[in-house]
Amino acid sequence: MDKKESQRIQEYLQDKFQSKVIRVVERPKKDDSMEVFIEDEFIGVIFRDDEDGEVSYSFNMAILDIDL
Predict the structure, then answer these.
(1) Residues in the chain with pLDDT < 70?
(2) Cα distances (Å, whole numbers) of residue 42 to 13, 49, 51, 63
């Protein structure tokens, strides 16, 4: 995933969740996913899936019991 793609995803998430504090950041040594933050807190990973010429993204967020 390149900078342009991560910027598009970040803008989509900011618009969808009506929050400008969401950031999408490149992962070191990984080119198939990006990390998602709210301000400085890591909340999950977005994976890129390119199958049969169709691109989709999957957002994976773990919620720990101790955080509830």
Answers:
(1) none
(2) 14, 21, 28, 11
Report the distance separating Cα 25 and Cα 36, nearest Å: 6
Selection from 58, 62, 8 nearest residue 33 by Cα: 58
Using DSSP's 3-state secondary structure scheme, residue 65 falls into helix
| C-alpha–C-alpha distance, residues 67 and 50, integer Å | 33
> What would the pLDDT profile of 48-62 be if each residue is shown by its tens digit?
999 888 999 999 999
- Distance between CA 5 and CA 20 in Å, rounded? 17
Would you kindly state where each structural domain of the chain is located, as residue ranges? 3-67
pLDDT at 23: 97
